[in-house]
Design a protein that fits this description.
This protein is of the alpha+beta class. The protein is elongated, with a radius of gyration of 42 Å. It has helices spanning 9-27, 29-47, 59-108, 112-127, 157-169, 213-280, 286-318, 330-340, 365-382, 439-449; strands at residues 130-136, 143-149, 173-174, 186-192, 195-203, 325-328, 349-353, 361-364, 388-396, 399-405, 453-458, 465-472. Strands 2-1-5-4-3 form a five-stranded antiparallel beta sheet. A five-stranded mixed beta sheet has the order 7-9-10-12-11, with helices on one face. 54% of the residues lie in helices and 16% in strands. It is built from ten helices and twelve strands. The structure holds adenosine-5'-diphosphate (ADP). The site of adenosine-5'-diphosphate has 19 residues, from helix 9 and helix 10.
Length: 479
């Protein structure tokens, strides 16, 4: 009305055209067609003389109105089509982004259960379906429900039959499919290039076809990704299993070699000494008899250490190691370990350097003593007699480091990363007391169980090895 003064009546139609375009952009085809009709009527009623009637006096205006209608219908059509294309493109982009996010998520999942849950949830939420996933059982001769969203653990007989059929024939079965359409769900095989890994079951409360062609494509994409991920997880599990088997095999043979050697040597010595004592005991003088007896004792102690180590290792491996942790004074436990190692260290001089302000630590006394003993035992074994073995402790922020230093040949750098492994021994030509390769493995196992860690290195000030046990200072420990 305001523009009526300044514009020719025919130009006013442009104002209406704007409204038609706006409604096509905003609301789509039908609202804009409705806007066309209302515009034609309003234009006629309010502006084309005679005004306030639907009659048209001038035939020229009929033509104007007719062309206005044609232009409005065509533009609203075009605009509405553009709009729906833009919406489709947006939806596609969203779906692609979701698919991409899903595949990234799958790539990060290691466990099968998490994977199945994530897959079911994704399919259920993107397609608004109920989802179950069935995978072959351990023997591989039947399939069972392994996951779903919402969680579901049992299927009725018709569904189960359809699922099995789909698994056996590698084809869809169940609701809406050619086979067993009486089932409640539709079952689709999850396929990869190497074969079928499982079956996906879907259903929805609404009757009629489950999926539109677009949804079907999306489901295919999701199912393909899921199948590949399931296969990946299974392959990883297979590889792990193979690795564990190989490792067990290696351990078994190492254990056998070690046991046969380590049990036999001391047993032979004990047997020899005992037999000599029994047979020629009378003929030997006191000092020879003493020596034989101490051989028996030493070798029996070595056997005992070996068996203790083996038992400890087994407990560690089986995870049945029970920690009896308590607040303990480091000086006290170092003292006990040194006392126990006195005999093995009798040909070394021992230097102890413990500052008086050491905090208490939280450890299992028996196990920690065993750790220190194993380290001292090694120092005695691998450093020549007459050298000194030092035990030092230092406080660092938040932890205490206990170092055992010897003056032996140290450890060659290429062996350093391995010496804490089970049965790892560095063979050397010179004579040395036999070991089992378990001592350090046990040290690491125990210390880690107590929340600390142990490291090996070579001394920088001179030749020799240094083993550092680091324990956290428990919160609230007296300074
Ligand atoms: P073992 O029963 O052979 O002593 P360990 O697990 O205690 O088994 O040690 C593994 C290997 O680490 C040993 O065979 C030895 O070669 C090396 N090793 C351990 N402690 C020392 C040390 N203080 N100095 C030099 N080498 C050492």
């Amino acid at each position: 009305m305001a523009l009526k003064q300044s514009l020719a009546i025919s130009s006013l139609s442009l104002v209406f055209l704007t409204a038609v375009l706006a409604s096509a952009v905003r609301f789509g085809l039908f609202p804009s067609l409705f806007a066309c009709i209302v515009s034609v009527l309003a234009y006629n009623f309010f502006f084309i003389p005679p005004v306030y009637t639907f009659t048209i006096a001038d035939p020229e205006n009929v033509v104007t109105l007719f062309f206005f209608l044609v232009v409005a219908v065509i533009t609203s059509n075009l605009t509405a089509r553009m709009r729906s294309q833009a919406i489709t493109a947006q939806l596609r982009a969203k779906t692609t982004a979701e698919l991409y996010a899903f595949s990234r998520k799958l790539a990060g999942i290691i466990g099968l259960d998490d994977l199945l849950w994530a897959t079911s949830y994704q399919i259920a939420s993107m397609l608004r379906l109920r989802v179950v996933v069935l995978l072959p059982d351990e023997n591989g001769d039947s399939i069972v429900v392994r996951g779903g969203y919402p969680p579901e653990d049992a299927l009725d007989d018709a569904d189960l039959a359809a699922a099995r059929w789909s698994w056996d024939r590698n084809r869809p079965a169940g609701r809406g499919a050619d086979t067993l359409p009486g089932a409640k769900r539709l079952f689709l095989p999850l396929r990869t290039g190497r074969g079928t890994v499982g079956v996906l079951g879907i259903d929805r409360d609404a009757p009629g076809p489950l999926l539109t062609p677009d949804e079907q494509r999306l489901l295919d994409a999701l199912a393909d990704q899921a199948a590949v991920a399931i296969e990946r997880v299974k392959l990883v599990a297979d590889v792990d299993e193979a690795r564990v088997l190989a490792e067990t095999e290696r351990l078994r043979s190492a254990l056998l070699t070690s046991i046969s050697h380590d049990l036999r040597t001391p047993l032979a010595a004990i047997l020899g000494a005992a037999t000599s004592l029994r047979t020629y005991g009378e003929l030997y003088d006191q000092s020879v008899r003493e020596e034989l007896i101490s051989t028996v004792q030493d070798e029996a102690e070595r056997l005992n250490r070996f068996v203790t180590n083996l038992l400890d290792m087994t407990k560690l491996e089986a995870g049945v190691l029970e920690l009896k942790s308590a607040m303990i004074d480091l000086g006290e436990i170092v003292g006990t370990a040194l006392e126990r190692a006195r005999k093995v260290l009798q040909r070394h001089s021992v230097v102890v350097d413990l500052p008086s302000d050491l905090p208490m630590v939280r450890v299992d006394f028996v196990l920690f003593e065993q750790v220190l003993f194993n380290l001292l035992d090694n120092a005695a074994k691998y450093a020549p007699p007459g050298t000194s073995v030092a035990v030092r402790a230092r406080r660092r922020d938040g932890s205490v480091a206990i170092e055992i230093l010897d003056e032996g040949g140290g450890i060659a750098p290429e062996h350093l990363p391995h010496i804490f492994e089970k049965f790892y021994r560095i063979r050397r030509a010179d004579r040395q007391r036999a070991g089992t390769g378990l001592g350090l493995a046990i040290c690491r196992g125990f210390v880690e169980a107590m929340g600390g860690n142990v490291e090996a290195a070579n001394r920088s000030d001179r030749s020799g090895a240094v083993f550092t046990v680091t324990l956290p200072i428990p919160p609230g420990a007296p300074p």
